[in-house]
Amino acid sequence: MMHISKLPQVGTTIFSVMSALANKHDAINLSQGFPNFKSDQKLIDLVNQAMNSGYNQYAPMPGNLQLRQAIAKKYERLYETSYHPETEITVTAGATQAIFTIISTFIKQDDEVIIFKPAYDCYEPAVDLYGGIVKSIQLSAPNYQVDWDLVKKTITKKTKLIIINTPHNPSGTILKDTDMYKLQELTENTDIIVLSDEVYEHIIFDGLRHESACRYPDLKTRSFVVASFGKTFHNTGWKMGYCCAPKELMDEFKKVHQFNVFAVNHPMQKGLADYLEEPSHYLDLPNFFQEKRDYFLRLIKDSRFQINPSQGTYFQVLDFSEITDEHDVDFAKQLTIENKIASIPMSVFNEAGKDDKVLRFCFAKTHETLEQAASILNNI
The Aminotransferase class I/classII large domain covers which part of the protein (predicted)? Predict the structure, then answer.
């Protein structure tokens, strides 16, 4: 047998493992991050209308121009900044493709990439594929705050990319303006590129503000901002995302993008372009998801889990240290098999599998599902 793997240490993702276990044991699945309620029928109708109107051939390589114009208007409205729709925005096959393409565009052998753990699991393998060196900085539960002095010490002449994620999956925390100013200060007058994963930008709670990298002028000049329509509009299976960056960075991105996917689903792009004409479709999302978070937390307030309310995303981390000293992976599997509720163990996202005795639960579910889940959690 030929030994040709470029990722010999990579196996099946924890998301697939836990979802398969949930299906096998007929458990409530709060593990993988997807809603179990329908996308807006108006959006579905607009996509169907686009198909019937002939938007069934290749879109322009950077994306449908009307959609890119709508994205540009959204950034002006939300963040008081501008991206040129013709040169600084590219529509992608989901945020993961955008992230992979950014890494493949800029990372060469022995380039160093700083990531913060717990980290979403698509970052590190992409760096490995291109011969880059991951420099991990472990964040500590329950607040997962960044130690910027440590970041400063970690930056070297080989540092090519820093990946940030806010609101943060899997912890549900957010970066604040003080964090972004520190990042801007540390990268100023360097050749470091920032990849800002902002797929949960519209899912933020308690009146907090999403601190997009594009709000900070010098930081914006070196940053890719990555976003997701799938996370925003409850249709993760559509795999529709986009990224924004200054022209000189986006020009390099598109050189790779054109040979990776070239262009993505055209009728969905047209439908999304029409849907974005009504800003309330994204402006109302914080309240929509905060109601779900608050409802879920009220239901489990008397459980034995320790709760630090999520600041953003549709994930809630629960501390089980007062329940058992089992490893989080073992406990998550036990809950799925015996108690019929699936979650994600956080250690799989940490450096060296650091176990903080916390599990991640997705609350992007119907009230009925959340009530069933809470009933189980309250009896553990």
Answer: 26-375
Helix axes 266-275, 41-52, angle to 10 degrees: 130
93 phi and psi angles, rounded to 5 deg: -85, 70
| pLDDT 10s digits, 292-318 | 999 999 999 999 999 999 999 999 999
Task: Give ∠ CA 168-172-173 in degrees, rounded to 5.
Answer: 70
Domains for the chain: give ranges and CATH numbers: 14-32+284-378 (3.90.1150.10), 55-279 (3.40.640.10)
* pTM of the model as a whole: 0.96
Bond prior to 142 in cis (omega within 30° of 0): yes
Q: At a CB cut-off of 8 Å and minimum separation 6, what does 197 contact?
A: 95, 99, 120, 163, 164, 165, 166, 226
Q: Which of 37, 49, 42 is nearest to 267 (CA)?
A: 49
**Tokens in use for 274?**
């029409």
Q: What is the pLDDT of residues 116-153, one digit of tens each?
A: 999 999 999 999 999 999 999 999 999 999 999 999 99
